[in-house]
Amino acid sequence: MEFVMAIIIGILFMAAVYLILSRSLLRIILGTGLLSHGAHLLILTMGGLGGTSPPVLADGVTDYADPLPQALILTAIVISFGVTAFMLVLFYRTYGEHKTDNMSLMKGNDEHD
Amino acid sequence: MKTNDVILQTATKVVFFIIFLFSIHIFFAGHFTPGGGFVGGLLTTGAIVLLLLAFDLKTVQNALPFNFMIVTAIGLLLALGTAASSLLFNIPFFTHAFDDVYLPLFGVSALHTAMAFDAGVYLVVVGSTITMIQTIGGDS
Amino acid sequence: MINLLLLPIILPFFFGIILLFFPKQIKVQRTLVTVGLIVSFISALILMAKVKSDGIQTVTLGSWPAPFGITMVSDMLSVLLVTTTIVITFFVVVYSFTGIDEEREKFYYYPAILFMITGVNGAFTTGDIFNMFVFFEVLLIASYVLIVLGGEKKQLRESIKYVLVNVISSALFVITIALLYSVVGTVNMADIALKITDIGQPGIITVIAVLFLLVFGIKGAIFPLYFWLPGSYAAPPMPVLTLFGALLTKVGVYAITRTYTLFFVHDTAMTHGLLSILAILTIIAGCIGALAYFDLKQIMIYNIVIAVGVILFGVAQMNDAGMSGAIFYLIHDMLIKGALFLLIGIIIAVTGTSNLRKMGGLMKTHAGLGWMYLIAAFGLAGIPPLSGFIGKMLIIQGAFEAGNVWGSIIMLVSSLIVLLSVIRIFIYAFWGEPVALPKTRRRSYRSLMMPAVVLVLISVAYGVGTEWLIPYMTDASDVLLNPSIYIDAVLKE
């Protein structure tokens, strides 16, 4: 199972890097989304995939899942949700001001000498 | 161009309340089972976004005359206040108190201070997401 | 009062929330933000006295026992940094009363500053590596708001790069924490330190150490990763730049210091050697940048990069002199960068440009500004008895003790280059033929000067009063050099 997860996480990171390196703003946002998904899956895998019961204290349950990665992922998901929403607004505004969504037209610092 | 979306508008008038009620249900379900303030808040936001899609921004603002930034602030204050009430009792921050209380109609219910915190989260999520959507939706 | 160490985090947050209710009433905003910062400052002072007398303070949120709950730990280093943060923010806020336009003040400028302080203080205080990530995000999201506030074309363009770089580094942070968790099975920093020595897996731990260096290096702007800093920091208005320059990179530096003294001490030849080399390269790259530009903001921004290199070079020595020198220099640099950025903000406000070639002769009209700038510039370069001297001297002493002769020589040369770069500003802006100045009101000039002057005076006092500060600095460096003090304080039960 860990092997499959490793491949899935690798594919997610690969796609994320490809999208972040592209020029369109929208693709970049999708890329950061995939990057955080990959990171979250990595936490889940790194916590160990064993454990079939929910991590609730009950009699006779010995094989329970590790609750900490789940708590960490939940926090990380909320944060990446907020940041992604902020980025969408920011990129939309930038698109409105600059009339382009092409990153290569937005480089440079015009007033340095 | 004026589109005629009678079906959407009629359906929304009913569906909005169903989603809203379901979000309240999810919010209280978070007590012992999956759910809670964050998911409930997102569902409520979903219901309001449906209203925004079916009607226009102005109608929705008249129907829900809140400043959603204030809603966010109230939510934050509620969450922080719940956590900080432990300052008064000189116990570690975020320590939560709970007890089984007899309530009329409900019978014996477990009441947690965590729920007040969750209500704060709910308000923050609704307030901030709607503010964002209104900001983008405002111009076009 | 066991929650005392949380007050410098909670109070700014509370006042920030209250400010959200009245965005349009500027008077209320200004009063409340001042009150909030003063109250937080008092709580930080009480906390400092408490830490001085009773040792490290800890509280575990939600009453969970130590390795399971989130622990907040306040040792001397973190309480010193928290106090300095609040002081600088206070003066920046006072400067903002005239230094920033009303449009921004009405658009949640002060709440964003207070939320950023919440994040910064939280990151300094936390004893849990994942909680540190959360506080990093709090301060980053507030800084996104501050950098984009106003929505000028240039700001939007630069904030995209800033946000993107930080989002990627945050994802890397999560990935690194995941890897660390898989090895040690805990996220409590004291517990991690114990487990790392127990499991004896130096190879993978070294890899994680380098990954952490990468993550915090992006935030703290060390050598190959500082590329985003000059462009992004030049975009926002001056008070925001002051806050960023004085505080944000220092959080990254603090995180490197904490992790590299607490966890990654098993293979110092590799990890600290790498840190030392990168610090020297950071100094060199910063020096080149500081000399290359004729733009006030850019020169000062590259000076941030140099300071990061100097502090980390001190940390990398891992001995008594180097560590206390690094702490001295860290706090000195926060104060003096705050003062210098405010001063060049005034120069820019007076002359209406940030290009050195278009300035001149300010000494005739603004002598007080010139003298203040000169004192601050000497302080930055480390001329005794001003505040930069003692820190640099201790760092160099530490480097000689550790046998890093070349590194110390480069650092000494860099002091000269720092002096050259800031004196060049003085020569171009204050000497020479006076140029026609745009009309500015004398009153607003005076109210801008006040916070800057007080901050310069504080930094002078910090340099002259070194003798009285030594016990505090020794306390701070003791904890860093003997992690067992920290571990015992957290896991005492």
Number of domains as seen in the coordinates of chain A: 1
In N-to-C order, the SSE pattern of chain B is HHHHEEH
Report the major sheet of chain A. none
Give the end-to-end Cα distance of chain B, rounded to a whole number of Å: 14 Å
Name the chain pair with the biggest interface and residue counts per chain: A-C, 38 and 36 residues
Poorly predicted parts of chain B: none
- Main sheet attributes: strand count, strand direction, barrel closure of chain B: 2 strands, antiparallel
Rg value of chain A: 20 Å
Number of structural units classed as domains of chain B? 1
| Termini Cα gap of chain A | 56 Å
The geometry of chain A reads as elongated
Q: Which architecture of chain A does the CATH hierarchy give at level 2? A: Orthogonal Bundle
* Helix share, percent of chain A: 55-70%
The CATH C-level name of chain A is Mainly Alpha
Query: Would you tell me the overall average pLDDT of chain B?
Result: 86
Structural class of chain A: mainly alpha
Order of helices and strands of chain A: HHH
How many helical stretches of chain A? 3
Work out the helicity level of chain B. Answer: 55-70%
CATH topology of chain A: Helix Hairpins
| β-strand amount of chain A | under 5%
Task: Tell me what the structure shows.
The complex is a heterotrimer of chains A (113), B (140) and C (493). Chain A is mainly alpha-helical. Chain A has three helices and no strands. Chain A is elongated. The N and C termini of chain A lie far apart (56 Å). Chain B has 140 residues and is mainly alpha-helical. Chain B has one domain (6-138). Helix content of chain B is 69%, strand content 9%. Chain B contains five helices and two strands; from the N terminus they run H-H-H-H-E-E-H. In chain B, helix 2 packs parallel to helix 5 (113-138) and helix 4 runs antiparallel to helix 5 (113-138). The longest helix of chain B is centred in the C-terminal third of the chain and has 26 residues, at 113-138. In chain C, helix 2 runs antiparallel to helix 3 (76-99), helix 12 packs antiparallel against helix 13 (296-317) and helix 14 (320-351) packs antiparallel against helix 16. Chain C starts with 6 loop residues before the first helix and ends with a helix. The B-C interface holds B 69-70, 72-73, 76-77, 80, 84, 86-87, 90-96 and C 1-3, 6, 10, 13-14, 17-18, 20-21, 23, 59-63, 72.
